[in-house]
Amino acid sequence: MRLQFPAYLGAAALLALLAECNSPENNPYDTPPPPSPGSGGPLLSDQEIAVARKLYVAKCAKCHKFHNPAKYADEEWRTWMRKMSRKSKLKPDQNELLSRYLATFRADAAEQVIK
Q1: 23 or 44: which leads in pLDDT
Q2: 41 in Cβ contact with 103 (< 8 Å)
C-alpha cells in the first residue's frame, strides 16, 4: 500500500500543474500587448479589448504563441484566421471581435512605418 500512495500523490500534483497551465490567467505563451490607444485600426472600446484579449488567451494562446498579424500579407492572415477560427470553434461574433482586435496590431505596424 505504501508504494501506491506516492504514485497517487505524484499523479495529483501533475494534474494540478496541467490544470494551472491551461487556465487563461496562467498563459504559458506570449500574449499580445493591448493595442495602443488611437491605433487607427478598427475602433474597440476598453471593454471590447478586455474581452478580446481574454478570448485570445483562451482560444489562441492555449495552443501557440502570438503570431504578429503585421508580419503577414493580408490574404495570408485572412487564410490563417479562417483556419484557426474553425479549429478553435469560434462563434461568428467571437471571430469578428478577435479579428478586429488583432487588426489593431496591423494598424499599429503600418503607423510605425509611416512615421
Answers
A1: 44
A2: yes
